[in-house]
Amino acid sequence: MDGEVEANKQRSRRLYEEVFGRGNDGVADEILAEDAVSHGPGGSPVLGTAAIKGQAALLRTALPDMTVELSDQFGYEDRVVSRWSASGTHSGPLNMPTGALPPTGGRIAFDEFRIDRHAGGRIVEAWFMPDRMTLWQQLGLLPAPPGPASPPSQG
Questions:
Q1: What is the pLDDT of residues 114-139, one digit of tens each?
Q2: Whether the predicted model's global pTM rises above the 0.90 cut
Q3: CATH assignment at residue 124
Q4: Count of domains for the chain
Q5: How far apart are CA 76 and CA 67, in angstroms?
Q6: Exposure string (b/e) for 128-151, b if CB count within 10 Å is 16 or more?
């Protein structure tokens, strides 16, 4: 079982490092089942690999220098839980549901949590939660949170 869990973890790692990190969308077809189910926030489940390839392309267009780091990962039976982060310079258009957001030139960094379910040597189902609030704040679409309060003056 440990060998299978490690193989599942490696498969999930390839999604972040190769598909998102290097833009190699062909890897998605190697590691995801053709009818994989993706559950994301605010929408119905999506079937297949096209959506994940499209999301990676969207991010890599907006952040051509994007780097990816896998921060935490653990596996149990057929599930792998990962926390990964992406960062880069917003130097390309970002296609949002409301239209294209022109480049800001600013540095962007965000995290995502993901649970992958594996069967038959493939990722067959996933649940993910990207930190869109932080991303949107960095893009200027939402107000940034107030900075830390200054300590009261001693006087």
A1: 999 999 999 999 999 999 899 889 98
A2: no
A3: 3.10.450.50
A4: 1
A5: 27
A6: bebeeebbeebbeeeeeeeeeeee
